[in-house]
Design goal:
Layout lengths: L1 H12 L11 E3 L7 H4 L6 E11 L6 E11 L3 E8 L3 E5 L4 E5 L5 E3 L5 H14 L3 H7 E8 L2 E8 L2 H4 L2 E8 L3 E8 L4 E11 L4 H5 L4
Antiparallel strand pairs: 1-8, 2-3, 2-12, 3-4, 4-5, 5-6, 6-7, 8-9, 9-10, 10-11, 11-12
Helix pairs in contact: 3-4
Length: 210
Amino acid sequence: MRKVIIVIAMLFLLFPLFAADNPGTEVDLMSGNYSFISDAFGGSTMAGLFRQTKTVAGSPRSFVSTGRITIASGMGIVWCTEKPYASILVVGKDKLVQKIRDGEPSHLDIANNPIYIQIATSMECVFSADFSKIASLFKTYLVKEDTKWTLTLIPKDKVVGSFMTSILMTGSCSFESLKMTETTGDSILYEFSDLQIRKLTDEELALYSL
C-alpha cells in the first residue's frame, strides 16, 4: 500500500493560463459542438514531448522534469522521463508499472485501490477527450478566444475531489498544456510540444507490456 501511495505522488509530479476562480462559462460537453477540443486530440494514439513543472505551495522553488509521452486509447499513458533522471511510468486502467533507470519494472497492486482507479480514469478521459467520462467526473467551464481555448474541470466526484481542486487544459489546433491543482495547494503544469497524432512504433507499444 505504501508503494502505491508513493507512486501516486510521483504520478502527480509528472501532471498564459486562466485562474481556477475565474474558469469561464459552464458548458455541457455532451450537448454542444465542441469538436474543436476533441479535434486537438485527433486519433486514438499520440506521441510527443512533455515538460513538467511542480510547484509546492508556500515555496519559491519549482521542480522541472522533461521527457516523452505516448497516449493510446484503451491502453493508457506512458511517461518516459529523461531528465533529471531516466524513468518510465505506465499508467493503465488496471495497472501501474514503474521502471527506474535500468532497473527491473515494479508492478504495483492497485486493483483494490479506489483512489488510483479514479486517478487512472480521470487521466484517461482527460488525455483522450472522452466527453462522456469527463462529464461524469467534472463540471466543465470554457473560455475561447479565436482558435485558442481553455477548459477548466472542477471535480464533482468525491474521490477525485479529495486529491485535486481543478484541472486546466489549454489548446488550439493541438493540445498544449494541462495544469492540475491539488487540495494541498501544490500544482503541476504539463506543457506539451511536438504532439503528433500517429501510430505508435513497436518500441513504444512494447512499453505498455512492461
